[in-house]
Amino acid sequence: MKRILRTSAALLAAMTIALGSSGVHSAELKKVAISTIVEVPQLLETRDGVIKGLAEKGFADGKDIKVDYQTANGNLPTQQQISKKFVGDGVDVIVAITTPTAQAMASVTTTIPIVFATVTDPVKAKLIPQYKAPGGNITGVSDAAPIAEQLKLFREILPKLKKIGFVFNPGLDSSNATLERLRDEAKPLGISIVEAAAPTANEVIPATKKLTGNVDAIYIPNDTTVVAALETVVKIGQETSTPVFTGETRGVDRGAVASMGLDYIEVGRLAGHMVAEILKGKKPGEIDAVVAYQQMPNFVVVVNKGAATAMGTAIPDAVLKRATRVVN
Predict the structure, then answer these.
(1) Lowest CB count within 10 Å: 54, 57, 210, 309, which one?
(2) Band of pLDDT at residue 98, cut at 50, 70 and 90
(3) Separation between Cα atoms, residue 224 and residue 243, nearest integer Å
(4) DSSP structure string for 224-287
(5) Residue 229 CA to its chain's centroid (Å)
(6) Where are the beta strands (DSSP E) in 72-203?
(7) Which residues contact 159 (CB under 8 A, 6 or more apart)?
(8) How far apart are CA 219 and CA 226, in angstroms?
(9) Residues 216-247 pLDDT 10s
(10) pLDDT for 185-201, tens place per residue?
């Protein structure tokens, strides 16, 4: 009996030590909080890229770090609540995907490091004062589209392209920044921009319909309000033979004619590497913010032959030959 009691006591002691060790290990895990305003493919790819980039630098989720991912489901008050939760949890680094998410995070802390990703213009969004050595507690990766190259692609598909419609939410800093760049890049090509504001998802349809008959094509930027209603824009494009192009390539899978853009896993990887640097002790303000397309020598070109036919145009053979992916 005494032997059984001694054995039980030894097992209990071993379990206590093991549990204690486990508790210490959990307490030592750095907390990486990730959030996005809405779940669409490119944002989920950005999130996955962040986790991949962290793993490449030696920070595996559940082993070296604890990742807490939260989505606001398109609701800004919810996004604000999530930002306060992260601060209350005392996380070590926040990864903010999209401009409204980054702005919500920046509004609640000036001390917890923030790495933004998939933010078009972080300077105009007042997240950082400049890209090089931004200072403060924020750095990150811009996903500004390679607009000049995109316009050349659209002109190659539509040689007579002179007027392009731009549907956007004027309440989003990222969309306003894209519009400004689009004007600058289109001017040398002799292409004029026709704006159509859609402050809410319900206003996307009337904004798009105002453009038809007045433009040669429609361009949908990386605007979460409009992208969420992309199928509706595509349907109008088919009904009126107005080709629809998008600022990000996933839009082509949803019915747009073509796009040239970024690999969002790679955008996330760049941000993940920045997070790893911070976890190793570097201050975010010492890490240069970057524009993703300037770090990527090759862009993804995606075309949709079926969508082109449905919108009354065709993809030239030269474009098909160099396309990264063709959707039929």
Answers:
(1) 309
(2) very high
(3) 20
(4) HHHHTTHHHHHHHHHHHT--EEESSTHHHHTT-SEEEE--HHHHHHHHHHHHHHHHTT--GGGS
(5) 17
(6) 93-97, 114-119, 138-142, 163-168, 192-197
(7) none
(8) 11
(9) 999 999 888 898 899 999 999 999 999 999 98
(10) 999 999 999 999 999 99
